[in-house]
UniProtKB/TrEMBL annotation:
Identification of the protein by name: Exodeoxyribonuclease III
Gene designation: xth
Marked site: Interaction with DNA substrate: H248
Organism: Flavobacterium hydrophilum
Coiled-coil region list: none
Cofactor(s) this protein requires: Mg(2+); Mn(2+)
Classification of source organism: Bacteria, Pseudomonadati, Bacteroidota, Flavobacteriia, Flavobacteriales
Length: 259
């Protein structure tokens, strides 16, 4: 089974890019972030014509997450991250597909700091950690997938010294990620490539993609049942070079079927 995550940075404006990649890569399950479309503007027909079922949680202008599945039913569990009834930002959706819990997330950026956006990020991270702990306790195979807006280590960012006071690399955020993983999750890409510089995001400015001045902020965290089945993974870096593309590239893993 091939599972992918892709921050599309506007699903309608980049629909042709998404559809081209879906045809080329043929993932079985896809988590999308930053739809930047209200609920009724999700391109459902185009996604279905491409062979995918979909559930989504849209939001006008910003945020938005979706889960796609090819030839499989999607049983929605929740479309909000527990812990704050007043949080209306569409950043989390969770579903059961083929006996596996898929949690698709778009963690807040947190900049600028100090300030309310950074505080929101830390609180959201704490809520995610609480939900993640609950998922592990259920003993059901589970994955936390998406744009975490975190570079966990210096290996995950070009020129790390320039990012020490950025909300994506602050020590508090990296500690939150480390504590989350320590619950019993496996960082799939880092397990497969323990010492390699692998990026998933390149800014539009200063020819970042051409210079490979990137960040690794899109992650797969696997429960132990899934980690044992991990076969391969990587980044479809070339998609970042396509015309009118997102500033993220799709990331994917392959796992053996879980009985």
């Amino acid at each position: 089974m091939k599972i992918a995550t892709y921050n599309v940075n506007g699903i309608n404006g980049r629909l042709n890019v998404l559809l081209k990649w879906l045809e080329e890569a043929a993932p079985d399950i896809v988590c999308l972030q930053e739809l930047k479309a209200p609920q009724d503007k999700f391109p459902q027909k185009a996604i279905e014509d491409a062979g995918y079922n979909a559930i989504w949680h849209g939001q006008k202008q910003w945020n938005g997450v979706a889960i796609l599945a090819r030839n499989m039913e999607i049983e929605e569990i929740t479309r909000t991250l527990p812990g704050d009834e007043d949080d209306l930002q569409s950043r989390y959706i969770e579903a059961l597909i083929d006996g596996i819990v898929i949690a698709c997330l778009y963690l807040p950026n947190g900049n600028p700091l100090p300030g309310p956006k950074f505080e929101y990020k830390l609180k959201w991270f704490a809520r995610l950690s609480a939900r993640a702990e609950t998922l592990l306790s259920l003993k059901t195979p589970a994955l936390l997938i998406g744009d975490f807006n975190v570079m966990p280590t210096e290996l995950d960012v070009y020129k790390p010294e320039k990012w020490v006071n950025d909300a994506l690399f602050r020590i508090e955020v990296r500690k939150a990620f480390k504590d989350l993983v320590s619950q019993g999750w496996t960082d799939a890409i880092r397990l497969l490539y323990p010492n390699e510089k692998i990026y998933t995001f390149w800014d539009y400015f200063r020819k970042a993609y051409e210079r490979n001045a990137g960040l690794r902020i899109d992650h797969f965290l696997l429960s132990s049942q899934v980690a044992k089945k991990l076969k391969a993974g990587g980044v479809d870096r070339h998609v970042r070079g396509w015309e009118k593309t997102s500033d993220h590239a799709p990331v994917w893993i392959e796992i053996d079927k879980i009985k």
